[in-house]
């Protein structure tokens, strides 16, 4: 009689699978400096949530895979627990997390410092657009999950561009969260959109140029980058994240970098408006 509680191994010899490391091929940017990648945005993808959205970026040039994919769900507004202190306005809670399978190097189930930083920036960007006084003693949860990253985490760490990739991730989080909040029917002063601009050079002797929607692997060196959360109708910025090293006397370069990020966010806002308009059109 066979022992049904025992898990027997294979009868023959086996060879464990060995995965080759992905060779990251550096390709030059063929898009114009003011060009942004195409995106796909769809709302109402999670029926059980109050609002939801899915965002996918065009893959980087020379890549055989797909681009970055993000999804966002909004739960609320709903009443706060009885043990919570009184709040005259709506309490916003944001949560950004990479899926364990988002990158080739498997992510942990607990959030690391970079994911907590993304959550803080996202909360700051959304807090400036919500009309929170209309929902006293209420709370709303915004949960963003990065389903697939643009680069493998190990490749980004080896090239030293992981910190620059976080700019594009934050821009995508702001955009997909804004669409999900609009899908949930939460009143806002405007639709916020994320945009990124960077100052890059091909080599040390090359003059720096400002490009919109940068992909760090397509440039020789990234000197500085700027990510903004922009309200197009009100012409206001709710969050600004600047990273890099510029000369202290180059105030004009900083102004042009912020202006480029705002210009990139305007293109993203058009995609949000088109997606929301399509969702409101009766089938």
Automatic annotation (TrEMBL):
Keyword line: Cytoplasm, Exosome, Nucleus, RNA-binding, rRNA processing
Region (Disordered): 1-32
UniProt domain Exoribonuclease phosphorolytic: residue ranges: 36-186
GO CC, one annotated term: nucleolus
GO biological process: nuclear mRNA surveillance; poly(A)-dependent snoRNA 3'-end processing; rRNA catabolic process; rRNA processing; U4 snRNA 3'-end processing
Predominant location: cytoplasm
Molecular function terms from GO: RNA binding
Subcellular location per the Swiss-Prot or TrEMBL entry: Cytoplasm; Nucleus
Assigned protein family: Belongs to the RNase PH family.
Protein name (record): 3' exoribonuclease
Organism: Cordyceps militaris (strain CM01) (Caterpillar fungus)
């Amino acid at each position: 009689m066979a022992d049904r509680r025992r898990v027997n191994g294979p009868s023959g010899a086996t060879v464990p699978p060995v995965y080759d490391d992905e060779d990251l091929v550096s390709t030059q940017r063929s898009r114009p400096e003011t060009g942004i990648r195409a995106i796909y945005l769809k709302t109402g993808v999670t029926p059980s949530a109050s609002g939801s959205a899915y965002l996918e970026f065009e893959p980087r040039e020379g890549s055989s895979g797909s681009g970055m994919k993000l999804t966002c769900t909004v739960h609320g507004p709903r009443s706060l627990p009885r043990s919570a202190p009184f709040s005259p306005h709506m309490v916003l809670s944001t949560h950004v997390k990479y899926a364990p399978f988002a990158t080739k190097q498997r992510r942990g189930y607990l959030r690391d410092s970079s994911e907590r930083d993304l959550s803080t920036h996202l909360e700051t960007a959304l807090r400036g657009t919500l009309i929170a006084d209309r929902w006293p003693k209420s709370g709303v949860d915004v949960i963003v999950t990065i389903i697939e990253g643009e680069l493998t985490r190990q490749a980004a760490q080896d090239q030293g561009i992981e910190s620059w990739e976080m700019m594009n991730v934050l821009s995508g989080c702001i955009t997909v969260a804004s669409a999900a909040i609009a899908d949930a029917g939460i009143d806002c002063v405007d639709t916020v959109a994320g945009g990124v601009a960077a100052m890059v050079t091909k080599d040390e002797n090359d003059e720096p140029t400002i490009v919109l929607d940068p992909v760090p692997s397509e440039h020789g060196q990234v000197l500085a980058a700027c990510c903004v959360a922009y309200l197009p109708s009100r012409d206001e910025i709710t969050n600004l994240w600047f990273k890099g090293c510029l000369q202290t006397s180059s105030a004009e370069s900083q102004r042009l970098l912020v202006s480029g990020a705002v210009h990139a966010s305007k293109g993203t806002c058009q995609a949000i408006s088109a997606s929301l308009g399509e969702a409101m059109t009766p089938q």
